[in-house]
Design a protein that fits this description.
By secondary structure, the chain is of the alpha/beta class. Helix content is 39%, strand content 15%. The protein has a 6-stranded parallel sheet, sandwiched between helices.
Length: 186
Amino acid sequence: MSIEIIPPKERRPAVFLECEALRQFAEGSAASDARPALERVRAAGFMSIGIANRPDSYRGPEDHDDLAASYTRLRESLGLDEIRACWHDPAKFCLCRMPGFKLLIDAASDHWLALGESYLVGISHAAIAAGYGLSVPTILVADCTADEKPRPDVRASTLVEALEWIVERANRSVPAYAGLKTQTGG
């Protein structure tokens, strides 16, 4: 019998970005800052992956094409590597609808991502909970009260501020959870 050891594929980190945060950012006054900030994220070695829950207002197949087209426009305008969305009925349980984290697990599996070196940037506590469930450091781009659970690891005023913080840490080779006082790390 002969045993062959197959070397593992090189894993890379990702920045998961909640699509509602991206949509607000892309439509806001700082839209011209979005693409360069995401290009710096990719230059630092991260994949950029949008993640989305199907909106509660989604009415079914008649909305699917319009929503899918809006995600495609968002991906192309910001230069994201991809967008993954949960299309399931919000009234029914599924593992991919945030705070479930199957969208992140599937992306990690498909792209050999290093979740422990990745980040999740969002505006909702559902997104923060999805990152928390996988011990992915989370950045909330918004104000929230201290008693909301799970609490984000970092708060940022803007999406660009969050992305620049990630790039700065990557450029200094600071591990994702190093120095963070969190519920899951540090």
